[in-house]
Specification:
The structure holds two protein chains of two kinds.
Chain A lengths: L4 H18 L1 H4 L2 H26 L7 H16 L2 H7 L16 H23 L4 H21 L1 H4 L14 H19 L2 H11 L1 H6 L4 H27 L9 H14 L4 H17 L7 E2 L4 E2 L5 H16 L12 H16 L1
Helix pairs in contact in A: 1-9, 3-9, 3-12, 3-13, 3-14, 4-6, 4-7, 4-12, 6-12, 13-14
Chain B lengths: L14 E12 L2 E12 L3 E5 L6 H8 L7 E6 L2 E2 L5 H7 L1 E3 L12 H9 L9 H4 L2 H20 L15 H14 L4 E5 L7 H17 L3 E5 L3 H7 L2 E6 L2 E6 L1 H5 L2 H8 L1 H7 L1
Parallel strand pairs in B: 3-8, 3-9, 6-7, 7-8
Antiparallel strand pairs in B: 1-2, 1-4, 4-5, 9-10
Helix pairs in contact in B: 3-5, 3-6, 5-6, 10-11
């Protein structure tokens, strides 16, 4: 591949950002690093849902299910056998899961692959539905996955969940997987394959007349999205060190959906921005829940206050900028340069 | 082979598309009844008829959206009855739509490239791996898209979104996208709809040119009689789902049944 200006700039930015993150512990506290890791994981989740919903137009509300599969598969792979024996108190863990121990990257890929393969079983019956019906069916499937996890006690430890998952997901590891996700999805979405997916989103009938196997391409996009959701789930489990079935309810899907819609459906850079801004906002608004002393009046801490403010922010976004931060546009180097040229011209004038 | 009466098309032996006794019902409504037509390779032919005569249904049956209850359709000697639209496209039949179906947010070039997809060789998983072969093909598709855009006079608007184009340009873009699938038979559903007389005239010439340039066979539905009579070599006339006349433009123009279908009973009486 020829190394043009834009590719060079992209690689340089990735490397410099990686170096900065490598040294992050010297200038960031534990809490900031915790948030930074969460941002990268959320970026992976947002990108994966954007492929399904933003590019292919499949209104899927089953993301939490795939995230759960990734998290559980990965946790089972990296938890030391001795620890598993102690933790499974309801029913002993069955072989081969009891003796399973793999490197972290294998467990992450495994989580992704499991989620991707499981997605096929959901996709084949469900993707014949359209729009709202598809949303309901995928939502139901996510609940089925959750109930399965609760009841498969000999494998998943049931509703007790899994604790003490080794924290292999360091900042650099999360960054690496986010980059991997971005590069794979960018190459897919901005090749002719991406054009095909967007054509299916805009007009299925036209796509099928152009010789495109609409159903097969939908299944493919759905499974690739589920694969990356599984990867995000695997990292999430290791990052939080604790997972239980209650975590993977509809609210998790809703969060990811919010990143995607706020960033812009059909824009990869939009998803990155959306995930970053909203993750930070959700943490930063925590101060609203603490007791406040305004000098003349003292407000006791109100739990849940940040969600109220957050809803207002979302309402404003929806009212003022319906297509999200980026719309379907991408933040490319050409756009950035064009922006600076405009600024320069305005200053001269 | 016996048991049905074939109409007498200009050259039955060389027929690229052959429909025999096709009947398409929706519940109790018969949209197309006992339709037979043979389209010789290399021809430009038209289907005309009053609104609701079942012309677009015929196109939908031919391109695989509906499977007719009765009858047989063959394309280049092979049966295509019951095949999926994407498989029929792969065999070499492309079409445009009466109501334009483009992706409005995608650029002109991207829209055309969607049409190129069916003829590409590299599978999707080569894209993330960054294989040189994939990117070479990708560049070929882009070049093919540019050539087709130039052919329909859209090379100035390559990077504009399809939705921002004027109506006539969107119609040309849809034809370019259909040509990108490398068809042998092109079905045009009211290509001149919404065009002014000047644009219609240009379209007539354009249809003749692309037939020669891409070695196409063209079947079109049209309301604009000037376009139909000017460009078609053979015409089928439909009314209430059935063929009422067929032949060269001159024959059709003077057929009393056609005049009655278009102008009403009284005119025929007065003429007689």
């Amino acid at each position: 591949m020829r190394l043009d200006r834009n590719t060079f700039l992209s690689i340089a930015t990735m490397v410099i950002f990686g170096l900065v993150l490598w040294q992050a512990e010297t200038f960031l506290g534990d809490y900031q690093i915790y948030i930074a890791k969460l941002i990268f994981i959320n970026i992976i989740l947002a990108l994966s849902l954007n492929l399904i919903y933003g590019f292919t137009g499949l209104f899927s509300l089953g993301h939490a299910g795939f995230i759960a599969i990734g998290a559980y598969v990965s946790a089972l792979c990296i938890l030391p056998p001795a620890q598993k024996e102690i933790m499974w108190i309801l029913e002993p863990i069955i072989w081969p899961f009891s003796d399973l121990l793999t490197p972290f990257w294998v467990s992450v890929l495994g989580g992704g692959l499991f989620a991707g393969v499981f997605a096929i079983f959901i996709a084949v019956p469900v993707l014949r539905l359209g729009d709202d019906y598809l949303g309901m069916a995928t939502l139901a499937f996510a609940e089925i996955i959750r109930v399965l996890i609760v009841n498969a006690t000999p494998i998943t430890n049931g509703s007790l969940g899994i604790k003490g998952i080794p924290g292999h997901a360091t900042l650099l590891v999360c960054y690496g997987w986010a980059l991997f996700t971005l590069i794979v999805l960018a190459r897919l979405c901005y090749s002719n394959f991406g054009n095909v997916l967007r054509c299916i989103r805009d007009n299925e009938i036209a796509a099928s007349v152009m010789g495109i196997n609409v159903f097969w391409n939908k299944v493919l996009s759905f499974c690739i999205g589920a694969f990356f959701a599984g990867i995000g789930g695997a990292l999430l489990g290791s990052h939080l060190s604790t997972i239980d079935p209650k975590m993977f309810n509809f609210l998790l899907t809703f969060n990811v959906l919010m990143f995607v819609v706020a960033g812009g459906l059909g824009s990869l850079t939009g998803s990155i921005l959306g995930a970053t801004v909203i993750t930070i906002l959700l943490e930063w608004l925590r101060f609203l829940e603490e007791p406040m002393d305004l000098g003349f009046i003292e407000i006791p801490g109100i739990p849940g206050m940040r969600m109220v403010v957050f809803s207002v922010v979302l309402l404003v976004i929806i009212l003022k900028r319906r297509e999200g931060i980026m719309g379907t546009r991408e933040l490319t180097w050409n756009r950035i340069f064009a922006f600076f040229r405009r600024l320069e011209r305005r200053e001269k004038a | 082979m016996s048991g049905f009466v074939l109409p007498t098309p200009p050259d039955y032996a060389g027929a690229l598309l052959l429909a025999r006794n096709v009947t398409m019902r929706f519940g109790g409504v018969t949209a197309v009844s006992d339709l037979s037509l043979a389209l010789p390779a290399g021809a430009i032919a038209g289907i005309i008829g009053p609104n609701g005569a079942g012309k677009t249904t015929v196109f939908n049956v031919l391109s695989g959206f509906y499977t007719p209850q009765e009858g047989e359709i063959t394309f280049d000697g092979a049966s295509i009855r019951g095949k999926e639209p994407n498989d029929i496209c792969r065999l070499g039949m492309a079409r445009t739509f009466q109501n334009i179906r483009l992706s409005p947010q995608m650029t002109v070039l991207e829209n055309i490239m969607v049409g190129c997809h069916v003829r590409r060789h590299c599978p999707w998983w080569m894209a993330p791996l960054g294989l040189p072969r994939f990117y070479r093909e990708e560049e070929e598709l882009r070049e093919k898209g540019r050539r087709l855009a130039e052919r329909v006079h859209l090379s100035e608007q390559l990077d504009e979104t399809a939705g921002s184009l004027p109506y006539g340009a969107q119609r040309r873009l849809e034809i370019a996208r259909a040509l990108a699938t490398e068809p042998r038979l092109l079905l045009l559903d009211e290509p001149a709809a919404g065009m002014n007389p000047q644009e219609s005239l240009e379209l007539m010439h354009f249809i003749g040119h692309i037939r020669d340039e891409f070695a196409l066979t063209i079947l079109l539905i049209e309301h604009d009689m000037k376009v139909v009579m000017g460009v078609c070599e053979y015409i089928w006339v439909m009314e209430y789902g059935a063929l009422i006349a067929e032949g060269t433009p001159d024959v059709v123009r003077n057929d009393p049944l056609v005049i009655r279908a278009y102008l009403g009973e009284d005119v025929v009486v007065q003429n007689a």
